[in-house]
Design goal:
Elements: E1 2-3, E2 7-9, E3 20-22, H1 41-45, E4 52-53, H2 56-64, H3 68-77, E5 92-94, H4 103-108, H5 110-121, E6 125-129, H6 137-143, E7 150-155, H7 161-167, H8 174-187, E8 190-198, H9 212-222, E9 227-232, E10 235-236, H10 241-254, H11 258-263, E11 271-272, H12 276-292, E12 296-299, H13 331-341, H14 371-379, H15 382-391, H16 399-402, E13 407-412, E14 415-420
Parallel strand pairs: 1-4, 3-5, 5-6, 6-7, 7-8, 8-9, 9-12
Antiparallel strand pairs: 2-3, 10-11, 13-14
Length: 437
């Protein structure tokens, strides 16, 4: 098996409280129709090279203090020199473009060895999965040694087992994933529901579950889930052949022409998010029911960040003794603080301390050709990238555009700042394609 560079700074950049992501393998065996990694053409191209696996020796080097300059970057992003009062760094994300508990894991056992490294170096980790390998005795014996280090987010988008089998073709059924929440909760792990993506015709209401979102939240809470994070599905604007076939099938199964609906909402871009108004009804309904069940709520949807309980949209609060030491300079935290205190959001509030010394080429592959692209690869820092979006009104990541009017621009002492305004709640009684009653 080839070596795979599965450790990276997340592409979500300054909109993420957990900037370091680890993927165990280059592929995922579950084949979900909506998978956003299928829009990453670099990821797809890598399949031609065969299955790749992230070397655990590289992971251990980072955790133990080695790994050269790249290791130094990851440790800075993980706040190794800014540990909290309990001695913990920031959590690492496990599972970005692959699932660490899929059927590849059943053959390779990579996760089992990774868990032991986390225990050895006392590294908190947030595991995102649809898989069921954590129900296996070998995995539970290891996790039971230090359950406080493991934050398990189980990904489920519908309680409807028939539709789930069509859209998530090789993943375990929803009830089996609920068993994972229950088992991990009993072991003492912090657990949550990863309700993402929320899909009309799948997550709101189905023929077998008229209030599917409430059913799913109730199942999770009853199984011991303490938190929930969610985001509305976004639609890629470019498709390769197999991906197009998968979306064709999914749209037939859910009865919603997602691509046509989204193309009416704005100009084409790599991935198109829906309008804040179109999703208001479902976003607020999910939030309301999760709070009724006593859950911590994280909202990954940019235009509805104001609904977050705290500054981590994965559903964690900064007071948590193990997982609360996440990156504080992120947009979710800035919006929550501005909402609660009225303070202005400044560029420094969303620029991590390690960004000015981190080249963009260390984070992602800068495309393009010619002298400008060559210069960017050699000299452009991550802080420059953040600043460019901050000041460029035409950028899709400019705060006014990205948060769809939840912020308003101010200029103070010559500096562009943003004030929290919040969404103008219209509370529409009916929104096309969402069914909540």
């Amino acid at each position: 098996m080839r070596s795979y560079g599965g450790i990276r700074i997340t592409n979500d950049g300054n909109d993420c409280a957990l900037p370091v992501v680890i993927d165990s393998h280059s592929h995922c065996s579950f084949g979900c129709a909506y998978c956003f990694s299928e829009n990453n053409f670099g990821h797809i191209k890598g399949r031609d090279q065969g299955l790749g696996q992230t070397p655990l020796a590289t992971v251990e080097a980072i955790f133990s203090g080695g790994g050269g300059k790249q290791g130094e970057l990851f440790r800075a992003a993980l706040r190794y020199d800014q540990r909290n009062a309990h001695g913990f760094p920031a959590p690492v994300q496990l599972g970005g473009i692959n699932d660490p508990c899929d059927n590849i894991e059943r053959q390779q056992g990579w996760l089992l060895r990774f868990l032991k490294l986390c225990i050895k170096y006392k590294q908190p980790v947030r595991i995102s999965t649809k898989g069921a390998v954590l129900l296996e005795p070998d995995y539970q014996r290891v996790i039971a040694q230090a359950p406080q280090l493991f934050w398990i987010l189980v990904s489920i988008v519908t309680p409807d087992e028939i539709l789930a089998a069509k859209v998530e073709r090789h993943a375990p059924p929803p009830k089996k994933r609920i068993e994972v929440i229950q088992a991990m909760s009993k072991l003492g792990c912090f657990t949550g529901l990863r309700f993402r993506p929320v899909v009309p015709g799948l997550s709101d209401s189905t023929p077998r579950y008229p209030l599917a979102y409430k059913t799913l939240i109730d199942w999770s809470a009853d199984a011991g889930a303490q938190a929930m994070e969610y985001e509305i599905i976004y639609v890629p604007m470019r498709f390769h052949g197999e991906q197009r076939k998968a979306w064709d099938r999914m749209e037939r199964d859910i009865g919603v022409p997602l691509r046509k609906v989204y193309m009416k909402m704005g100009p084409a871009q790599a991935s198109l998010r829906p309008s804040a108004t179109w999703m208001e009804q479902i976003v607020c309904a999910i939030h309301e029911h999760a709070k009724q069940r006593g859950m911590i709520v994280g909202v990954s949807e940019p235009s509805w960040k104001e609904l977050n309980d705290d500054g981590c949209c994965c559903g964690m609060v900064r007071t948590h003794p193990v997982f609360g030491n996440y990156e504080p300079r992120n947009f979710t935290q800035a919006i929550v603080d501005a909402r609660d205190t009225g303070k202005l959001i400044r560029l420094a509030d969303v620029t991590p301390v390690w960004a000015p010394t981190t080249k963009m080429s260390s984070i992602c592959n800068i495309g393009g050709a010619g002298p400008l692209a060559a210069y960017a690869k050699r000299h452009m820092m991550y802080s420059d990238f953040i600043k460019n979006d901050w000041n460029n009104a035409r950028s899709v990541r400019n705060p006014l555009t990205y948060f769809q009017g939840a912020l308003e621009a101010r200029v103070e002492n010559g500096e562009v700042c943003y004030a929290f305004k919040g969404q103008n709640r219209r509370n529409p009684l009916t929104t096309p394609y969402w069914r909540l009653k």
